[in-house]
Design goal:
Helix content is 15%, strand content 34%. The longest helix is centred in the middle third of the chain and has 13 residues. Strands 1, 2, 7, 8, 9, 10, 11 and 12 form an eight-stranded antiparallel beta sheet that branches. It is an alpha+beta fold.
Length: 182
């Protein structure tokens, strides 16, 4: 039988620190298309989501009852959408547009290479408050597939931001706190 937990200020004060959302690093193994570098993208990334991951259930109805078993592993929509701030000379949008062009040329409609050429691996590392690695995720076969529109507004006093859309095959947690997923 379960017992109610009795919380005190001492037990709550002894809990580990919460993990902050503002200390992270995004790293691309390469940036295909020649428009920028992984460093450019890392230092200008303002938001990097970790996509949804689920286990899709298998359903069967047996004698009037619905029974569920574990099914396939799913990785959301396989659309990953980090946000970046633009530089004074347009490095971020140029890098992403060049990568998109590398994947599917405007004039030809063809790729400048095969998937091994236009895709890359990307890591997202989340740090704790002391700067130590807390969580790390690795995205496989990442490629740029879109860049949201950017409205230029004379009444605004904001830095230019872009949301880039990347396709990926799957991602997994790696490192010391990793959950075995493969």
């Amino acid at each position: 039988m379960a017992e109610r937990l009795n919380y005190t200020i001492q037990t709550l004060g002894a809990l580990d620190d919460g993990l902050s959302t503002d200390a992270y690093l995004i790293e691309f193994a390469k940036v295909p298309g020649g428009g920028g570098t992984s460093y450019d993208m890392a230092v200008r990334c303002t938001n990097v989501p970790i996509p949804e991951t689920t286990s899709e259930p298998i359903e069967a109805e047996i004698h009037g009852f619905k029974v569920l078993w574990r099914g396939r592993r799913r990785f959301g929509s396989n659309d990953w959408a980090p946000q970046f701030i633009e530089t004074k000379n347009g490095v971020i949008s140029t890098a992403i547009r060049s990568w998109i062009e590398y994947c599917a040329g405007t004039d030809s409609g063809n790729s400048a290479g095969y998937k091994a050429d236009y895709s890359t691996m990307a890591d997202v590392t989340i740090f704790d408050t002391t700067g130590k690695e807390a969580l790390k995720y690795r995205f496989f076969n990442v490629w740029a597939r879109g860049l949201d529109e950017q409205a230029n507004d004379s009444a605004s006093n904001e830095v230019m931001r872009y949301t880039a859309h990347f396709a990926y095959d799957y991602f997994t947690q790696i490192g010391t706190n990793a959950v075995a997923t493969r």
